[in-house]
Design brief:
Helix content: under 10%
Oligomer: single chain
Distance between the termini: 49 Å
CATH class: Mainly Beta
Radius of gyration: 22 Å
Largest sheet: 5 strands, mixed
């Protein structure tokens, strides 16, 4: 039986029993752990509703030399249920800085807005960005954020860009909470630069640092040059600022940010630190490695941990401490990427699929990667409505998108944008009141 057939069996079984299992499970009730098949899908579990060929859009698949570099080469995003934003690197000659002769990280990005299902281009543009990390984040209102150097720009379906926020140094990463009320940023800012200028722009100038903390930091010769901020997206006003030694991506919702606290053995406690002060324990998970947490909805967390054999373990939990479902992936599936629908009811878990179990004694090389695949989960139940291979491989992700209402999934596969239509997803549990 092929990997696709195994996962189709699993998806059918999940659809039948997961809702009943979630309804019966209370905070202390055990939840059965399920396992994904240790085989790779040869084709999607069902045919796409329609496909949009990539060649007429000017897209060229990247060469094998990029595999393992984790460069953000594409971004596929729904603006609404009937429009896709597809952006991708335009191949060209390697550029060099005229002054130093060093390789320039400047690159051109082609952007097209496609109407569905016809695939007609309704807007197009050509952008220039200056590094190789992720550059685009969709917003729930049909807009998006574009990152370049120390700037954030906001765009819409016409691909018109306007300034949003400027930072004192290069902006390395951003994240949004599920409600998109808050923005988390990592930026590289030497102390001298940060003392002279703070992020500006937006409806109001961004107030990004506490003056007492800035004075204390300025006195230290070893002050880190990376800055973590949590900003209100509507005003740009900072609610949290900290200098950090390395880039961090704290999971947040509209209440606060999450931390993992080490317990006994392989146990971990999840603590939510409120933006207004105070904290509370949401629940606990078992993991043999440091868990990686994501808020997929205001009330639902996805925790990526490790099972006893080191394979990835996915745990969906509510902020009330109730475990919704647990799934373990085989140790041949590595480098996961996550995409989530705007309503939080479905998520896409994308991995590179290796020919052998990956561990410290058998690391992954480019030659070991057999394919890339995506598994679509219902966030509330763990049901799997779709599994598909992805081709070409993009190890930094960006090749999967879920529509805001979770009714459509778009994939880059087999020379096309394949769009799948799904039944309504079960609603995620409502957020619990803070205790």
């Amino acid at each position: 039986m092929t990997g696709t057939m195994w996962r189709l069996v699993l998806a059918t079984a999940f659809g039948v029993c997961a809702s009943a299992l979630a309804a019966q499970a209370g905070p202390s009730a055990p939840v059965q752990e399920r396992f994904l098949a240790n085989q790779f899908p040869g084709k999607p579990t069902f045919a796409p509703a329609f496909s949009i060929p990539l060649d007429p859009l000017g897209f060229a698949a990247p060469g094998a030399i990029y595999l393992g570099a984790s460069h953000a080469l594409v971004s596929l995003d729904f603006l609404d249920e009937n429009h896709l934003l597809f952006t991708f690197r335009v191949p060209g000659l390697i550029r060099r800085d005229p002054a130093s002769g060093a390789t320039s990280y400047e690159r051109r990005i082609r952007a097209v807005v496609l109407s569905l299902p016809q695939g007609a281009i309704v807007a197009e543009s050509l952008w220039t960005v200056h590094d190789r990390a992720r550059y685009l984040w969709p917003l729930a209102n049909g807009h998006f954020l574009l990152r370049d150097r120390n700037r954030l720009l906001e765009g819409d379906s016409s691909l018109q860009l306007k300034p949003y926020l400027d930072f004192p140094g290069p902006l390395l990463w951003i994240e949004l909470d599920p409600s998109q009320q808050f923005l988390v940023t990592n930026s590289d800012e030497p102390v001298e630069a940060a003392a002279k200028q703070e992020p500006s722009g937006g409806p109001q100038a961004a107030s990004a640092t506490d003056s007492a903390e800035a004075d204390e930091n300025a006195e230290s010769e070893r002050t880190p040059e990376l800055v973590l901020r949590v900003l209100r997206r509507d005003t740009g006003k900072a609610v949290l600022v900290s200098r950090i030694n390395s880039a961090v991506h704290p999971p947040i919702n509209a209440e606060g940010y999450l931390e993992n606290l080490r317990g006994q053995g392989s146990g971990w406690m999840l603590e939510l630190n409120d933006f207004t002060g105070g904290n509370r324990i949401l629940g606990g998970v078992e993991s043999t490695c440091d868990p990686n947490d994501h808020f997929v909805a205001a009330s639902v967390l996805l925790i990526e941990g490790c099972g006893q054999e080191g394979a990835t373990k996915l745990v969906a939990m509510t902020t009330a401490g109730r475990t919704l479902w647990i799934t373990q992936a085989p140790s041949t599936e590595v480098w996961p990427q996550l995409a989530v629908a705007a309503n939080g009811s479905r998520l896409a878990w994308t991995t590179l699929d290796s020919g052998h179990a990956v561990n410290p004694f058998a690391p992954l090389s480019a030659e070991d990667v057999k394919e890339q695949s995506v598994t679509i989960f219902d966030a509330a139940t763990g049901a799997i409505p779709l599994v598909s291979p992805l081709s070409p491989i993009f190890d930094a992700g960006g090749n999967v998108a879920i529509s805001p209402a979770s009714r459509r999934v778009a994939l880059l596969n087999a020379g096309a944008i394949q769009v799948f239509e799904l039944p309504p997803a079960p609603s995620v549990p409502a957020a619990s009141a803070p205790r």
